[in-house]
Amino acid sequence: MTYDLVGSINPKITLCRPICWKWHRKCGHQWAVACAVSLQWATREDELQNTNLGMKYFWLLALLATLFLAPLTGRAQIDTTRGRYYQPRFRQVTVQRDVEFAQATTFLGRTQTLYMDVYQPAGDTVRRRPLIVLAHEGGFLTGTRDDAIMTALCTRLAKLGYVTASIDYRLYFFPFDTVGIGRAAVRATQDMRAAIRFFRHDAATARKYRVHPQYIFVGGSSAGGFMSLLTAYMDKPAEVPAYLGLADLGGLEGTGGNPRYSSRPRGVVNMCGALADLRWLQPGDVPVCNIHGTRDGLIPYSKGHVGSPLPAQRVYGGGAISARATAVGVPNVLRRLRGAGHVPYSVEPVYLDTVFTTARDFLRPLLGAGAPGPLLAAALKPQPRAVALLVPRRVLLVKPLSLESRLVPVVSIPQAAASDSSQFAPSNSNEQQSARPPEPSLPPTNPASEPVPNNAPASTSKPR
Fold it and tell me: Which residue, 167, 268, 274, 449, could crosslink 116 as a Cys pair with Cβ 3.0–4.6 Å?
């Protein structure tokens, strides 16, 4: 006997066909299939006599639950209404310190337990929240997860509604050369990936931290910036230089636990970090926010070398990373800290405010479903500010006094210069000398090198 999904040659089932198609129009194809299958199982009397009835109802309920819950899970999003994740919605933050998230092997071959501090908004009732995993600075030699910068950023972002975590990672390396520091960077990146997997495992099991597994971001300062960039973009074993011995280190993911879960972040906040190879950044990669001082003497803003006491390693800073991201179509934001050196926010609070607001504005548009669209560029790309144009004024050029002459000839530049603006007409001998002496430190200005804007208002004064 042959059956189809919405009917059969059994007259009892055939009579139910209109009901199924009515459900199809109302609730969609999935409910029509479920209705038809349930009607078939309920009316096939010859099968029910030979099969355990309880098992059939069990599988029926499982089928209905799968059809109903699967679409809802895929469409879950982050609620950004009422200013959440942009304005401080919470006054207090709870901090859970010394949360163990992994165990890893140090460069000496010993086992190290890695801890993190988890910051959560106090009194929050949202069931699934975005997470930001941050890593401190220190050149893979020093630093702690509770330093002032990490504490301030984690606290301020948690007041917006995020869950934030400042993590430990393995420090120290030997020998002190390019290979040693490269292997240290790989080990630290493995630790950041282990932290991401820890939270994804928790989201799938205990849900203690109520983190949304699809909205996990990474970031860091200096060495932590290197880690966050490597976590997002060095995602193929072939991209790791062979001399680092990736297999001996445990591969890209390391041995930090929860291997069944992904360590891919949704976005990167890089503060004064760099990449060793721009080719790691490919089309389709996650968005990146780069915050970098233009006069950084340690990690170059554009491109240069690091590790002067060591065999120098060529790296590409925030400016070059953003240029590469734009070229390959990866959404990105570049915040130039003009005239600033390395990690200026560690000494100047105003720079820390800039870092916080830049990260906040970068992250919030990414809290939606699917890939970030034009909203990211519209909300984050800084627009050029209007520049005030100085109205051209008359300039008096005074010839220095000499022993032979005590008279100072004065010339004036007309407001509307002739085609050859380098030719000045001599002034009238009755014109008085300017009461204000010229600035000796300023050289004479060649008007030809500074053209007057076409839309500048014409002066009504005339040379005497």
Answer: 167
Q: Where does 33-192 show beta strands of DSSP type E?
A: 93-105, 111-121, 129-135, 163-167
Q: How many Cβ atoms are within 10 Å of 89's Cβ, its own excluded? A: 15
Closest CA to 450 of 409, 384, 395: 395
Query: Hey, how many other C-beta atoms are within 10 angstroms of the C-beta on 359?
Result: 24
Pairing of strands 303-306, 313-316: antiparallel
3-state SS of the chain: helix, strand, coil percent to 5? 35, 15, 45
Q: What's the CA dihedral at 292, 295, 301, 304 to 10 degrees?
A: -150
Two tokens, residue 16: 């139910």
Question: Which residues lie below 8 Å from residue 422, measured CB to CB, with a gap of 6+?
Answer: 446, 447, 448
Are 125 and 132 within 8 A, CB to CB? no
Q: Give the residue from 229, 210, 170, 171 showing the smallest Cα distance to 194.
A: 170
Task: Transcribe 179-237 into DSSP letters.
Answer: HHHHHHHHHHHHHHHHHHHHHHHHHHTT-SS-EEEEEEEEEEETHHHHHHHHHHH--SG
Contacts of 72 (CB under 8 A, 6+ apart): none
Q: For strand 111-121 and strand 410-412, is the pairing parallel, antiparallel, or unpaired?
A: unpaired
Distance CA 406, CA 3 (A): 118
Domain ranges for the chain: 11-74, 82-380
- The per-residue pLDDT for range 230-257, each reduced to its tens digit, is 999 999 999 999 989 999 999 999 999 9
pTM, entire model? 0.67
Within 10 Å of residue 388's Cβ, how many Cβ atoms?
6
Q: What is the pLDDT of residues 131-163, one digit of tens each?
A: 999 999 999 999 999 999 999 999 999 999 999
Q: Pull the structure tokens for residue 221.
A: 């300062």
| Alpha carbon distance 27, 21 (integer Å) | 10
Report the Cα 395 to chain-centroid distance in Å: 50
